[in-house]
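Job type: complex structure
Entries:
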Amino acid sequence: MIITDPTGAKKLDSSMSQNILNPQDFTLVIHTGPKQEIARPSLSYWQDAWIRLKANKQALISLIIICLLLLFTLIGPLVWRVDPAEQILSRISESPSLTHSAIVLPPLKPFVAEVIPTIEAAPQADGAILPAPTNLEWLDKPSVQSVRMRWTPVNGAAGYLIYRSLEKPRGGFWGLPVGTVTSGNIVSFEDTFNLKPETIYYSVLAQNGATSTHAITREITLTPGIALNEARVLQPNTQPGDKIDYPLRPFGTDYLGRDLLARLMSGARVSLFIGLFAPFISILIGIIIGGLAGFFGGATDQWLMRFSDFVLGLPFLLFMILFRVALGKGAGESGITPMLIAWVALAWPGAARLTRGQILQLREAEFVQAARIMGAKPFYLLIRHLLPNTFGVILVSLTFAIPGAIFTEAFLSFIGMGVAPPTASWGSMCNDGIQTFLTYPHEFLTPALFISIAVLAFNLLGDGLRDALDPKLRSTP
Amino acid sequence: MLGTEPPQLNSTRSTDQESIFLLGHLMEGLTRYGKNSEIIPGIAERWEINDQGATFYLRHNALWADGKPVTAHDFVFAWRLVVDPANASEYAFIMYPVKNAEGINTGKLKKDTLAVTAVDDYTLKIEFEKPCGYFLGLTAFATYLPVRQDFYKAHADRFAADPQDIISNGPFILTRWIHGAELTLSKNPRYWRAQQIKLDRIEVPYITTDLGARYNLFRDGKVDTLGIGREQIDRALADRLRMQSHDDGAIFYIEFNHRPNRPTANLHLRRALRAIINTSEYVSRVVAIPGSRPGNGLIPQWVPGIKNRFREEFPLASHTQNIELAKNELELAKNELGGSIPPLYWLTDDGPGTARNTEYFQNIFKNHLGIDIFIDKQIFKERLAKSREGKFDIVSSGWGPDFADPMTYVELFTSWNANNNGKYSDPKYDAFIRQAQATADQQTRMQAMAQAEQIALADVAIIPLFERTVIWAHQPWVHGIVRHVIGPDPDFAFVTISKKN
């Protein structure tokens, strides 16, 4: 054992000079206690990084979220077997709901408005305020397909206005004008517009020049129903009057009655495909170019780096459009391939610069010098010693590029340059949802939430990876 | 509040809803529309119309905003400008009832042969090409407005480009126009009926197509009128807005490209697409604006016919979905088109609800017929340009009436009409329209137009989708807004304001 303590060494010296030792002074001591062990196992770079990453809660949670997102994307559609393009028009813009059932409605007979020939169709307007019609009654069986009504006419009316409301009309507020009858002798009306299973108040007002201020109001509660042709899509052989269970819509439906969960899953495929694939390829290219430039240096370095500066100055959006044209993608076709090509072609210089910087630094390091002296060939040096030591930095820049790519895809789909309908992506779903944001917020919020979570998770993981892999931070436990 | 910047305030060239709305308030023609959308005297005090021509007697107290009198010469100048091929007015065809107008517009006749003469300063004499039963309605239309020669010449290229380049003779003058952002119209004190105009100012403070933004502005009291889209109906109900409906006479339809190299030139394919569409489901679930009606023909419900409404006199069977027929026609189409149907390009604009409309049809065509639809979404201006150039297979279009006669709809699909973007052309159809245009006999005219409509429907020249109704609301302190089916809509000329509470 080498004694490093200078004070201890002095003590020994002084005792040695004063006493002369004899062989009797020495006895054989057999060590019976526990042997000294190496306290910590030897760790590779990656094992060490993994321990550090595990200690970082944020990064760990992000990693779990990313794994869940991948499961959601890859396994989800196998478990949740709903066609994302299937439209159920009786369930437009439904909020998230648990399963419920509906009665299958018979096909509608054509509606013919009832005309009473003995009444004048267009009497002279005398400006008098007309009384309300009486006896508002329902015809056939009102359903969410159609509500048909008739009333007893008012003398002197030249037509009627029909309103519907979700609350009891009061203070001159009748609700939504669902129709106008432009003849005094027509006394029935059919409302088919987007009826939902809820309680509705119908009001009928007579008009002749001035609209009457008196109305007859009657309420009706509609029960869930589904049109026969739609029911047969869900369950073939269904008959009118049957009760069928609506399929579960845990995230609600969109503006055409499509399942939001299924659309989120298929949208994730586009978003994550672009998000992972585009940065991966572009960084691979960056590593090759940066590695060559850093390793060979000199003129090669100059040319490659000036070229990468040039590429860095090219505008992404313009090139994306140019690639679209070059690939012969017409309007209305998917812009995913041109987007991928444009990203790969334009995003590599960042990774190339990083790699080059690392390689320049490592090239002069002692272990590389040693390997060189021992006769390692340049290619071997690059593959065995230089590139593996840049991986940390590369991985960090990869995780930071992923959210950028997800965001670009979302943005391009949002402005209509990305996926083509009916394919969904998170960005295009946001674009569709924002128009109804204040009425049906779930159509916008769910895809927006998914984008936010994915982007945040990749960012935090990138942060954690940087802390875990950065050699400068390695000495601190 | 307007949806878009008015593209053209030069009355001899405007074609769009926004410009016609503004011109209707700034200008006055020989006649204008009254409170119940009836024709009332405008600059003309009285008139005589027969099969050969018309004479209009102008009032002596009508002035331009700078104090000069409005004379018959201003009309002659404007109308000559409309038909002048150099002016390239898309609406020149609406002047064709005037003798020699078509000849001048197509370059066959000299410009000064237009049969409109100013007998004196206050008498305007018009000769007809053929008897025209609806001429009086035309005189209220924007293209027939007067333009003053000295003012037009003085402003030349800049005419109607900015407030100082416009001179009014109507109820309002344009006092402020920040392009793309806002406009202000102020009361014109020199308007001959000025004491009847109660409104001091019309402000257009915002120009946006975003229906959600418009709704919020209305709720905050920043604007006084509001058009309510399908997405806002539920909110408007919850907010207890006093909603009204207005049947604006516009028809919406699917227009096919009939140019020979297009798959949609195939009759069987068009029949298959027509048969698969369920218009009543589409209207009640997808359009979902109450009051809209499934479209069956070229001519909507409101149009007057011989004595009653045209549709009552010449009824059409309502269209029903027929999947069997669609599949049979599809097989025939496949045989003629060489085995398969290529993907079809569907041109549309970025207005509210287009995604919903086109994706609905995309799904139906794919599910039942296996036809792929590529949706080509463009801004409105670009959509107009592309449809004019014929760069589409299918385009969703709409048409609003210019005058109260079926002719305003059926003339659209004649081979000579500049707005016939699909280039539908059928000699029998053209012949019936020519026949209807050649006579003033209502029976013969209506009969011919009904027959023409039958031909177009049998040919599936277009697929009628629906007749529009708009839901709108106004603030409680605004009274007397008039909605017209034809002419400037909405019309603020009769508006009064009560105290805001």
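Summary: DSSP finds 16 helices and 18 strands in chain B. Residues 169 and 235 of chain B are 41 Å apart (CA to CA).
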